[in-house]
């Protein structure tokens, strides 16, 4: 047990006891998977914009800070800021349902040429 085992069986193995322990192990694995999935969903909600599913403001600044530290000595860093003028007209003319698609496609179509490239949404419309 000190070497990392969680459980053990003595020989001769009782088949009923083995099935019970395997069922308990399966429950633990299933609960662990649910926990990992829930944590990932919360992380995504905390770092993504609900309209476009792009990085949100908080995530953008975290990533930018990390990149600035990483590139401080070795290379340059480029930042592009874009604004969609009169975007409210999309909502007024096409409706709320089409707004999400238009907003996302406006930014996702930006060509990413570097592995560290990112697109984020900073302001609400």
Descriptive terms for the model:
125 residues, Alpha-Beta Plaits, 2 domains, single chain, mainly alpha
Tell me what you see in this structure.
With 125 residues, the protein is mainly alpha-helical. The chain has two domains: 47 residues; 77 residues, Reverse transcriptase/Diguanylate cyclase domain (Alpha-Beta Plaits), CATH 3.30.70. It has four helices and no strands. Helix 3 packs across helix 4. It is elongated, with a radius of gyration of 24 Å. The mean pLDDT is 81.
Please give the structural blueprint.
Layout: H1 15-47, H2 57-71, H3 88-94, H4 96-108
Helix pairs in contact: 3-4
Just name the CATH architecture of the largest domain: 2-Layer Sandwich
CATH topology-level fold name of the largest domain: Alpha-Beta Plaits
Provide the succession of SSEs: HHHH
Let me know the average pLDDT. Answer: 81
What's the quick description here?
The chain is mainly α.
